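2024-03-11 09:14:02 INFO receiving multi-entity request
2024-03-11 09:14:02 INFO entity count = two
2024-03-11 09:14:03 INFO echoing inputs for audit
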Amino acid sequence: MNSAGPISPSLPPPLPEEVLADLRRAVGPRWVITDPDHLLVYEADAQTGHRGLPQAVVLPASTQEAAAVFGCLHGHGIPVIPRGAGTGLAGGAVALQGGVVVSTARMNRILELDPDNRRAVVQPGVSNSRLSAAAAAFGLHYPPDPSSQTACTLGGNVATNAGGPHCLKYGVTGRYVTGLKVVLADGEVMHLGGAGREGSLFDFVGLFVGSEGCFGLAAEIEVVLAPTPEGACTLLALFDTLESAGKAVTEILKAGLLPAALEIVDRNTILAVEASAYAAGYPTHAGAALVVEFDGYPEGLEEEVVQAEERCRAAGAWEVRRARTPEERAALWKGRKKAFGAMGRLAPDLVVQDATVPRSRLPEVLARIDGIARHHRLRIANVFHAGDGNLHPNIVFDRRDADETRRVEEAAREIMELCVAVGGTITGEHGVGLEKREYMPLVFSPGELEVLRGVKRVFDPAGLCNPGKVLPPSQEGRGGPGEGAPDEAVGGGRLPGLGGRGGEG
Amino acid sequence: MRTPAGIGASWRREMERQAEKLFHCVHCGFCLPVCPTYLRLGDEADSPRGRLHLMRAVVEGRLGTDSGSFQEHLDLCLGCRACESVCPSGVEYGRLLEGARQAAASARPPSFLARLLARVMATPALAVPLLGAARLLRATGLPDLLARRLPAEGRWGVVRLGLGMLAATAPPDLSPGETLYGSSRPPSCEGSGTGPGPGEGGIGQGRRVALFRGCVQNGLLGHVNRATRRVLEANGFEVVEVPGQGCCGAIHAHMGDLAGARGLARRNLEAFDGAGLALGGATGAGWGAALPQHAHWWDGGGPRGGARGGGGGGGLGERARRFSERVRDVSEVLAETGLRRGGSLPLSVTYDAPCHLLHAQGIAWEPLRLLGSIPDLDLVPLPGAEECCGGAGLYALTHPDMGRRIGEDKARAVLETGAAVVATGNPGCMMQIGAWLRMTEARVAVAHPVELLDESYRRGGIYGG
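2024-03-11 09:21:47 INFO inference complete, emitting structure
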């Protein structure tokens, strides 16, 4: 179905005029986009391997507007695809077979900031960093810190249950969301949880967080904020090999220390980052760099830092640097957090993998991933949250080279199978989206998948909310609600490998 | 899909040459939260990533250069290049934009107003008398009055903005106490006298600096140029006049008229090359960024594709490169050598970074260091100082709606700092910010950072007064 080649998904039919009229009434004509040229910019998220053109993009500004849009589309049986800033790395915000993308970019207000109760209510289009910046005036912050935090939206964070380097100590998005006002597929607005209702019978909030837009749209999000730690100290330990860095991680955690973050970047990543605007001064001859951060009361930090330094040296670190001032720490973190974008310097295309393995298996898994890369003659740059065993092997390539692209697909699958085989799973934080759908059977039995489909049907009986995402098509291929579309419908080059940290991770 | 329109063919060749740069974009979206148009519209086509995607679609043959969306969304870009400062992949957005604008312009010419102003600025016989008349008009005080009184909406909006911009070019009132928000510092701090002077061996050690006068700046902000000369001389530099210099061509390049920009650049190269100077000093970020770009206006190609100094250049590419290496912003020149200390200037001042200084040239600290060296000056941080003010060359006039939204936000941010003066080192920014401060009835002065240093020197008796 792709006459224009792998880069160009085919144009879906335009929406009927009566639907467009309804949508324009709901949000205003300026905010209904239908020009095919214009729609091109919405054909992919940050994982450009998955492409598909929506029939329209609609930008509501409020819960009521969003509800009207959902209601209208439901009435006409048109699929709806929620989208935040399009920083996701699993194709979750891509229109697979037409449908209407509902962008939350204009739903970008912080509705309440209540420092006394350490809580905030935001619209889904507010970026992660903006909430923390607003809370900073009160000595508070929002702990989950995906590497794309300056750009990614809290709505997207809810959809993917996003993590971030500091979730080792502080936990992921789900731990901070206490209430949601959601727009369901048919346009009904429902209040889940909320202040003082945390103890209610079923944890609907917990169910909704991480549902990747398949249950509806989180239109208002209530979160708890945390006090900003008084002090922090960040270490940068340099190693000759990835394995020794992995060993240091195991040793630090075995010693009973609880760092706020434990991150590893490998040599390929260091090369890319140091060539970028975010050069952090990592030596380019190092085989791997380990970032260890402790936070808490300044008085208590020293002892932990010294212990961690010792463990790093024992594992083979030839240099350990300390960053204490906010500026030094920021520079050091920039090198880590902008790693995904900097990969563009290595090659034009990138598959950002995301998988978890038991921490103790890290050194072994890293060595085997290296073996897979060698076997397929590919370059892999590793960036990962070592502390919780969340790997991001990034495969750089050039999609114009068909043979290389095929090898990338094979390698990506082998890496997934490896991670599952050692007791891990197929996604740490980026979500399943389109990217990991085909790997779902690696971790779920057919019966379990059927249960998941059943859960989706409860929220979205007609199967119109972000269809084709997360759940693979059932064996019978009935194409029922919530089931995936046939594979050939994925516009453009079908590429595996999850999103990287850019997304909601 | 569509085939590109014929006029786009030569440009497409050029874009194909630049394709590797386009392909550096990994679509991460880190540029979205710094883009002034995306922040205000929320439409990804009005974000750097979206615009790059449209450019790429043209290169891939999926869009024609005459596509309405391609035209419209590239046109709405301010060219502030804030996206370049945050791009982890190092995409050279500004350069790609110039190329894309050239293609867009050949499919649909820029607005009449833009072409008229560009033509006038490039023609001294028109610009000099016109700017002279503008100075006379400014002296009557009418522009200041009308900018505050005319209706904001409709046809009068642009007239009001133009008058506000003109009024904003008047020399600032830097007398403490008379401004609305005086400094809290007691006046007794004043009078540190001449301070340790450059000595007679001098900070600048007699290095020769040629000042780039600028066209609008020379006509309307001559006081900035004069202050710059005084300050440089007080710091031991020798300031040389370069006759024959003219418009830098930045406005032409912004509009996609690279041929016009090259013609103007050639004139400047010839003028400055003969002067045998050590440094070219720029007091405006716009041309400070444009002059170093002269080099790639030649090797970047364009319709005649003059790579390696061939084509339209005739060896000029190499000369342009040598010239480019010597151009500095005046704040850089002074920060490099260190500064002579002036007299007390107890004013609260906030600083707004011109995009083409901060994002295009990466000059962040030098102007702050310059301001920080002034005794008793209270430097107040401006939230969003790194974001465009909406001036952007002719943008404020050619895109009045978006220019207004951004300009009003900037004026509000300046007001909220409580500062008496906002300092910024580019005529376009001074005019845009000054205009919107006037139109919001604010009494905040707008000054070039060098003017504040100059005032401090005057009070410190450095000029022997």
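2024-03-11 09:21:48 INFO post-check: The interface with chain A takes residues 1, 20, 23-33, 38, 42-45, 47, 49-50, 53-54, 57, 60, 62-63, 67-70, 73, 84-91 of chain B (CB under 8 Å).
2024-03-11 09:21:48 INFO post-check: The two ends of chain B are 72 Å apart (CA to CA).
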